[in-house]
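Revision sheet: structure tokens.
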Amino acid sequence: MNAETQQRILDAVDNGFEAQLATTRDFVAIPSTRGAEGPCQDMIGDLLRERGYEVDDWHIDIEDLKDLRGFGPIEHDFSKARSVVGTYRPRTNGGKSLILQGHCDVVPAGPLELWDTPPFAPVIKDGKMFGRGACDMKSGTIGALYALDAIKAAGFRPTARIHFQSVIEEESTGVGALSTLQRGYRADACFIPEPTGGKMVRSQVGVIWFRLRVKGHPTHVAFAGSGANAIMAAYHLIQALQKLEIEWNERAKADRHFKTLDHPVNFNAGVIKGGDWASSVPAWCDVDCRIAVLPGWSIADHQKEIMACVAAASRNHRFLANNPPQVEWSGFLSEGYELTNAAEPEAAFGKAFKRVYGGTPEDLVFTALTDTRFYGLNHGIPSLCFGASGGEMHGFNEFVDLESLKKTTKAMALFIAEWCGVEKA
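Predicted:
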């Protein structure tokens, strides 16, 4: 691809950026929390049809997925769950095929009064767009779509098959991405524009979600000593799991990538529910937890370690010793992933990066996870993850930096053109 073609594509990104931001605002405005992603999938389907892509919009059947590598259990109403894929088919085949994927699900906004502006009424100020999902990762998804638009607006069209995929469940199980593979979608490479601060994810953690279900013995609080407080018993288990976190971080020092980080394995007690009455010793407590695992670590083996940790802590507790808690697997059962065998797509992206940013992309050792793992681990498809800068993901006042978003869109457009090839329209 010559310099003139590159420049025409870059100019097209600039010319379309205001429209890109308008579409991104509309996308962020949809409160697509878990189980409510349908309107976002409707919007993506419409955008793809308007552009002439073949659209496959289907209901996800858990029975089709439950035996696949990386499946995580679903606990909520899944009756409306859908994946949407738009396929571009070239007139002539001259390049390599590509999957472009983004997830439209977002995490809950939390107490609305703690946001400076409403989370689902996105605003632009100081060169940033604020809103839940603006950074993670709706701006990246729309950016990928407008990267394709820029190639067309510059007077070219790709010479390889492209699947544009909008998935759900990235924040809790990953079964949306898994469903596209079960459906049969494949390509020579995958590109996911998660917000990485302009770095390329080299290695990422996996995640295990589990729930502690703790029972107590209720009494009137006036006689608390004769009862057993389930909430305090749950806290005893949390303290034991914090010690397991320390052990796993010691183990991480042997990993060639994660040894560069001080604390790559993070345990989080994220949701707690328990008790029925302030003056009653609580009879129950449920705690939803998350802990990371590193690439190459067995999910099954580390589930056993979690179980053993909880069992040992229970034996050292007056009530739990005879009333052991339950451990339930409540979402992610996801392996870590290291980008390997990706020299060709990385070289193609390196050319795009150099033109837009200068130099070479910096590696990111990522203490969160992305859907890239399914493509690389399940099917050997090299899966690149690179995206814009932003902040407060999963927090209040989430934002994406707009200049970085424009650069990311340019890099994606040039990468698509380099990897897939282009011809005059």
